[in-house]
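Sanity check record (used in CI):
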Amino acid sequence: MKRHQNLLLLIAVVLLAALPLWLVERPLGPDGQPAEIFGGADSQAQALITRIAPDYQPWFQPLLEPASGEIASLLFALQAALGAGFIGYYLGCARTREKLRREQRRGEAAARREDEDQEGPAC
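Expected output for Cobalt transport protein CbiN:
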């Protein structure tokens, strides 16, 4: 029973995540053509700059232009994954370092107590 309940909950979560992406209608842009649903701020800023200053020339060109939006999304996801991996690695190292310091302090305190017990009471 519990196994079927977990499976149903998993299916419900996947549907809740995927259905809105399928059911959303594609909006029309200012030119009447279908616009990007999940367009980024870069393209919106570029369109606004073109509208404000049509003769604007960019200061530089990208060194590498992705072949498609999917590749750009892949590169962005890869960058995010590498950043998250680096942060997770750093936090794990910092936590382990602190844990080892605490254990070392406990060991030193236990050794001091053991030395005091062997010396006997101070008079």
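The mean pLDDT is 84. If this sentence no longer matches the regenerated tokens, the check is flagged for review.
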